[in-house]
Amino acid sequence: KHLAISVEQLAPTLAHFLGVASGQKWSCLKAMRLARGTDAPISWLDAYVKPEFADVLDQPNPNGVSILKQIEERHCHFAANAQVEIFVGRIEEDLSEPLQCDTGAPALIILRRYKNSDGEIYLVTYSVHPESRFSLNFEFEKQVSPTIA
Asked: Which fold would CATH assign to domain 2-130?
């Protein structure tokens, strides 16, 4: 559920957090992920998009296609690298009401930075998941090479 789209000139603290240069103007989407068929919030999302790709934020998105996928489809621009940071934090006061939880409650926070083949970040997403509303599962499989006798 899209809540707001704005253009922000990145202050030094925010720019450092996002991993980009300060003073640049980026588009910011504020949105909430809801459980299917309900208004129950699963997470909060702040997505920062370089201006040349920000038009995807204005497009209808009835199927909930990710911003990354929209940029790929509309601009043929693909991520060569994705850096993902996962850490535990607390629900900030400004998110407690929309996420329907107490200020200071535990949260899982996921920060993703997407880079092009030149190593330039063009999309950053910051999502806040209140305790017990999200799980992240990984499965790794080792490929076994046949031995030569």
From this structure: Chorismate lyase (3.40.1410)
CA angle 120, 79, 25 (to 5 degrees): 45
Distance of CA 53 to the CA centre of its chain: 15
Which ranges of the chain does DSSP label H, i.e. alpha helix?
Answer: 12-18, 67-75, 93-96
Place of tokens 């040349």: 52
| pLDDT tens digits, 19-34 | 999 999 999 999 998 8
Per-residue model confidence as pLDDT tens digits over 107-149:
999 999 999 999 999 999 999 999 988 877 878 888 777 776 6
Q: Which of 56, 23, 46 is nearest to 113 (CA)?
A: 46
Q: Give the model's pLDDT for residue 146.
A: 73
pLDDT, tens only, 40-74 = 899 999 999 999 999 999 888 878 889 999 999 99
Q: Do 56 and 70 form a contact (C-beta atoms < 8 A)?
A: yes
Report the sign of the C-alpha dihedral through residues 57, 19, 132, 92, in that order: negative
